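Researcher: Quick test of sequence recovery. Tokens follow.
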């Protein structure tokens, strides 16, 4: 069975039964760590090449990453892409992908908390988060050296920076050369989180020390309607990571760094954002501007310095984040390469 067929069957199957054949590649051990999660372990890896975790479809309606993932599978199946370093390929939420929805029961990308392994929440996304956490744990036991995790998404709305990376909160800063790598792959901005949040990229960073990012790669669109051209540098990076080679670029790209300074939570049913529905991510608001109205918290007004709004969404569950507020990070003095 080809890798492409494996993942197509994984998404389309009514019920998952026993998977006897998880695909084969010459010179590579293909290990199924969970349904829809394949480790590609080269039998003769380049010791200098780092391992990579590549995930797509954590949100089911974010199709561009699933198409990029498909390009990788096709290149692997055709022998055009050689596996030179360990890679874990993860297709996230198959039920939501098949339904063309962000999620079925609850937002999968808030469920990656190890404590939930002990709870028996039977919602579909809670079950899947447990499977994915255990699959990553298994993969990591076979890996040494630094790991890069790219969890690929697309945003619900336009963005002043269409392609940006969200860095989960961590005590350990991301090295400059990793930011540079993302810039070379066409990422235009980096947004650093200010506190723990239970996303997939936070899981691999927090529990395994991986260099992990939630990558927002443009805007949500149906299958076949994505313009993959702006994502070709990202595809080059994914291919280089699997091949265990370095990305060949001019080395001149740069990205703008932001850090989250606050967040607006939805506390009541009587909640609205004061922003236009179609406002772009990273739009700036001056002091005095109203950002949200909540029946319990009252009005949320910008104080002191201007803020940039990211991920505004009034239609979140109560107690969930409706808006992130960010400010630019002063550029590092030494960014030359
Ligand atoms: Zn997403």
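Model:
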């Amino acid at each position: 069975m080809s890798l492409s067929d494996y993942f197509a069957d994984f998404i389309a199957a009514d019920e998952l039964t026993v998977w006897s054949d998880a695909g084969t590649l010459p010179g590579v051990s293909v290990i199924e760590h969970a349904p829809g999660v394949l480790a590609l372990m080269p039998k003769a890896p380049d010791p200098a090449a780092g391992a990579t975790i590549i995930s797509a479809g954590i949100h089911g309606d974010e199709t561009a990453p699933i198409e990029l993932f498909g390009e990788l599978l096709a290149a692997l199946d055709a022998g055009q892409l050689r596996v030179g370093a360990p890679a874990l390929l993860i297709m996230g939420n198959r039920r939501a992908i098949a339904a063309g929805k962000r999620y079925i029961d609850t937002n999968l990308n808030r469920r990656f908390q190890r404590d939930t392994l002990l709870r028996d929440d039977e919602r579909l996304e809670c079950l899947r988060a447990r499977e994915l956490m255990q699959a990553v744990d298994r993969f990591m036991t076979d890996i040494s050296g630094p790991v890069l995790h790219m969890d690929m998404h697309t945003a619900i709305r336009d963005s002043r920076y269409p392609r940006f990376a969200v860095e989960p909160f961590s005590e350990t800063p991301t090295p400059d050369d990793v930011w540079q790598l993302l810039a070379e792959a066409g990422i235009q901005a980096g947004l650093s989180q200010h506190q723990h949040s239970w996303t997939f990229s936070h899981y691999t960073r927090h529990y395994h020390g991986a260099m992990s990012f939630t990558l927002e790669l443009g805007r949500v669109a149906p299958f076949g309607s994505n313009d993959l051209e702006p994502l070709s540098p990202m595809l080059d990076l994914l291919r280089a990571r699997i091949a265990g080679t370095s990305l060949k670029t001019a080395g001149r790209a740069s990205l703008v760094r932001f850090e989250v300074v606050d967040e607006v939570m939805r506390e009541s049913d009587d909640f609205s954002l004061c922003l236009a529905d179609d406002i772009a991510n990273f739009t700036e608001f001056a002091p005095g501007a109203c950002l949200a109205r909540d029946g319990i918290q009252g009005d949320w007004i910008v104080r002191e310095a201007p803020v940039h709004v990211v991920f505004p969404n009034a239609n979140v569950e109560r107690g969930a984040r409706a808006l992130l507020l960010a400010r630019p990070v002063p550029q590092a003095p030494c960014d030359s390469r």
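The helical segments are 3-12, 63-77, 94-99, 124-141, 176-184, 200-208, 232-243.
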